[in-house]
Amino acid sequence: MGLARLALAVLAAAALVVLLVIGGRALFDSLDTEDAAPERTSATPTVTAPVPTVRIECVAATCPLVTVRVPGGDVLQHREMTEGEEVSYFEPELDVVISDAGTVRVTENGTLRPRGEQGEREAFTVGGPPE
To answer: What are the Basic and acidic residues biased-composition ranges (predicted)?
Structure first.
């Protein structure tokens, strides 16, 4: 019984040494290659991100109440915004109400909307991009 255990221990040690040698060679060969990454050629067209129906960015220290809702449906936003904060919505049609149009930058379907006057309330509906 002792001889069988000894044979198994020697066989396991030999297998471990073989695996270490194979792993070491593979690691050494991968580090030895000159090309860090093969040059990629793009055969498939690049996919562009969808354009939001409306994107609102706060450009003042605080932007008073900004409301965005689906006509006849859910209210998506009804709150103040802080400087640098931006929100984007992709619904097919949206109603937007801005308490102070001079404090936000609004983009409709990728097109910049003219900025309103400071203190002016602005309400408008935005339809999604034509398909």
So the answer is: 114-123
